[in-house]
Amino acid sequence: MVRVNSIDDMGVLCSLLEYNNLEGFLPLSEISRKRMRSVLRHVRVGQQQVLQVLRVDTERGYTDLSKKYIAEAERELGTEKYNKGKTVHNITKRVSETTHKDLEDIYRVYVWPLYANAASGNSAYKHPYDAFKAVAACKEGEEEDIWEGFVDVQPEVRKAFLGLIKHQMAVQPVKVGAQIELMCYSEGGIDDIKRALKAGLDLNNGQLTAVKIQLISSPLYLVWTTTLEEDKGYKCLNEVIDVIKQAITDFGGVLTVAKEPSVIGKVDA
């Protein structure tokens, strides 16, 4: 992950954010495989970009970079990896400050072994972020001991980690929704559509995840809910949509899913 610092006729100067802001250089020829009309359509000063390291030029003191061969999936993976690492670093750095312990020592004892365990297959976590997330997801009175069996773990540092993880990575509810189109040409018309929608809502009565339905613009409706677990939210929406579909079909109508269930926003705490 890099931050774009400046753009000139030769290329783009960047800072490598994961390597102590080491300078990197992205030649114009490495920005796109297609002919460019404007560099600014691809990179802008201040942007963060996922780039590929081509070579390290020790004589010039630059790391040569490339953008043109990075697929969208690689870009998403790189962004996710960077964001996870940034969250872990921010928490670890704060622990170092509050406990007055050396930052590298804390990484050595509490963070890097999580990577080592994952590499050896001895950990349920692929990344320290996933371990921290498991801690944050624990309910009151529960505890996930991610440092079990680790050497030199100090109670004060452990307590500082747990407090910061709970505070900074608290699970926030998200809003998930799907868009459906409802059409009915029976004598009941709109009344049959209302009955079909009510059938879906009746299925959800008494559930912990409350589903709501609102008209976007006829015949398009938004079916949505708030949840702490995306998968359960998707499952709930799909069940409601299936009931609505069956009901409207019985009335001689048609339901079409215009947009599958997905996250449509976070809920403010």
Automatic annotation (TrEMBL):
Residue stretches spanning the membrane: none
InterPro entries on file: NA-bd_OB-fold (IPR012340), S1_domain (IPR003029), S1_IF2_alpha (IPR044126), TIF2_asu_C (IPR024055), TIF2_asu_middle_sf (IPR024054), TIF_2_asu (IPR011488)
Pfam families xrefs: EIF_2_alpha (PF07541), S1 (PF00575)
Keyword Protein biosynthesis: yes
Top-level taxonomic group: Eukaryota
GO MF entries: ribosome binding; RNA binding; translation initiation factor activity
SMART domains: S1
Keywords recorded for this protein, A-Z: Initiation factor, Protein biosynthesis
Domain annotation S1 motif: ranges: 1-68
Similarity comment: family membership: Belongs to the eIF-2-alpha family.
Protein name: S1 motif domain-containing protein
